[in-house]
Amino acid sequence: MDHGHGMVMDLPPFTLGRGLQWSADPFFLVGCLLGLGLYAWGVVRLVRRGDAWPVGRTVSYVIGVLTVALMMCTKLNDYGMVMFSVHMVQHMVISMLSPILILLGAPVTLALRALPTAGRGRKGPRELLLALLHSRYMRIITHPVFTIPLFIASLYGLYFTPLFDLLMGSKAGHVAMMVHFLAVGVVFFWPIIGVDPGPHRPGYLMRMLELFAGMPFHAFFGIALMMASTPMVETFKHPSASLGIDALADQNAAGGIAWAFSEVPSVLVLIALLFQWYGSEKRQAKRTDRAADRDGDKELEAYNAYLAALRAREG
Length: 315
Prior knowledge:
Number of strands: 0
């Protein structure tokens, strides 16, 4: 059964060296280059204008896009078509690592600051982006009632139904699946960790709860694959002899990867959230101090006047 991938049938046994050889998926190659190019354009525009843009954001974004390229523009993508374990690495990185790094790069904020405003009554790219951010559609797709079930359904609804095999049957289907994983990751993590403005902005405690709501399902999915006594996904049931793997052992490995990976975003996001929380507390304290300076401690004066009035009354 050839998956429309040319010579994928007779891939030699998987090694990391072979997996990391160049083999670009055209759609993702163009997408990654475009993503990096536009971001660079935005940063250059800001710097030329004399505005600062945090280096950490640029680094995070670039690494995020490169992780997508690493999964989709190397032989990992070819092996991912025939080996469940490699496919699972692709899925986990693209849905749970790349989105976090890309979001920490604040691409929407960069776009809003770099894009010129259109003239009066006209709608340019910046105005359209703002309209989208404030749209009801965006409010729905970034709401936890939508994102958490979607995150879970992307695992169970895909792998344990014939939909997976249908998509894996063609290159276009496979690309669509990977785009879906990336998109689900972005809408799931955006309200939780995104630096960018978004319609749904819960407090820090709620964000942590949202983060942990999805993870047990993820871990359980991994455990289900690890414990299964028969291969569960048609696509990976009969690996080519040249790979030298056992379908069940490879599926168990895929489960182990999914299970182990469910902790990675939790740790990453928690660290980022604690930093964000600490930063916002510090800003809040500064604002209070500034307000006190500005008001010449009006509150204190009012209190003193109150005490004086009390004393006068008693006297």
